[in-house]
Write a sequence for this structure.
């Protein structure tokens, strides 16, 4: 008769928690959705090329002559 030396050190199978996996998947999907909406809004808010441009230039005063 032989004895399995690993028989005593084996752990019982862990209980699976399917709800934890479902919650994590839903949370991951919500985060991906929020990132997608944020990226879509950022791309929608970018400036349209070819629009009007305004330039501001400051002129230095000319020296005044003494009377």
């Amino acid at each position: 008769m032989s004895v399995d030396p690993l028989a005593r050190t084996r752990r019982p199978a862990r209980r699976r928690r399917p709800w934890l996996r479902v919650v994590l998947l839903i949370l991951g999907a919500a985060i991906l959705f929020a990132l997608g909406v944020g990226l879509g809004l950022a791309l929608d808010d970018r400036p349209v090329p070819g629009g009007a441009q305004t330039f501001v230039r400051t002129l230095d005063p000319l020296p005044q002559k003494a009377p």
Observations:
- The longest helix spans residues 18-44.
- The mean pLDDT is 84.
- Residues 32 and 38 are 10 Å apart (CA to CA).
- The helical segments are 18-44.
